[in-house]
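User: Um, any thoughts?
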Amino acid sequence: MKSIEKLKHYLLRIESWLILAFLGGMIGLGILQILIRKLFNESIPYADQIMNMLVLYIALVGAALATLRTKHITFEIVSKLASKKLLNYLDIIVNCFCIFIIFILYESVFEYIEFQKESLEMFFPDIQTLTLEKFLVPGMAMIGLGFVFNLLESLMAIFTKQADEVA
């Protein structure tokens, strides 16, 4: 149980730093874009596209962060009416379902990337948009990993309680 908590702690820190970096980059680029437009009547090439990608990255990392902290969508009425034991079993069912959905999305991301290879749209003169869209793969993996950790914690909670009751 301690090793899972330790891994979750490290992932939370990494994801928090990623969000800060992406958000800081987006804000900095936005301010720079405004200044250059006002002062020089020019704009930074591809700045809008970069900021669009950063929004997607922030959303993915934010979803992974919410998953690790178990702050994603919950049914409050169920948590108030159900017993702690029932909630652990419901957590297991929900986490298994979410892992299944994330697996399907993960596979879909690979199909999407394969489909995008055909169009070979260019983002910068030397960078394809496909290169930037590949961040979807680790983004989905981070979300899935959060659900796996939550599932393991729920399983450990049930089994440690059952072991305590038997002893």
About this structure: The CA atoms of residues 3 and 77 lie 32 Å apart.
